[in-house]
Automatic annotation (TrEMBL):
Name of the protein in its database record: (Fe-S)-binding protein
A Pfam family matched in the record: CCG
Domain Cysteine-rich: 16-101
Superkingdom as given in the UniProt entry: Bacteria
């Protein structure tokens, strides 16, 4: 909407994969803009994971009502991210990141979650 395609002050080195949250993608149509902003950061490389548009398994009360399915969906998302060799899973959705991070920490997986706003605010 604003036409911003880069935040020159942003700093992050490494490889990332982007998780398209259900609400951002389906309800708001957000897909290209976050990738465009992240791709403009020097030293940050995007690696697309398989099924990047698939739900992470959180879905509000879904995670409570269907815990086993929710955890399995988080596991699948994290495994797809790890298969890329990425160091970070970046997304616009705090709930997704919280859900994935809980799985990552519990299973001691070698990947971190970051919110796109935190990445873009780095270096300020």
């Amino acid at each position: 909407m604003l036409g911003v395609t880069a935040i020159p002050q942003a700093r992050l080195q490494g490889r990332y994969t982007y998780h398209d949250s259900c609400s951002a993608l389906r309800e708001c149509g957000i897909k290209i803009a976050p990738r465009q902003l992240l791709d403009a950061i020097p030293g940050l490389e995007r690696l697309e994971m398989a099924e990047n548009e698939t739900c992470c398994g959180f879905g509000g009360t879904f995670a409570v009502k269907f815990e086993a399915i929710s955890v399995a969906m988080a596991e699948q998302k994290v495994e797809h991210a790890l298969a890329t060799g990425a160091e970070y899973i970046i997304s616009t959705d705090t709930s997704c990141l919280m859900h994935l991070d809980a799985y990552i920490r519990r299973e001691k997986k070698p990947i971190r979650t970051l919110h796109v706003a935190d990445v873009l605010a780095s270096g300020w």
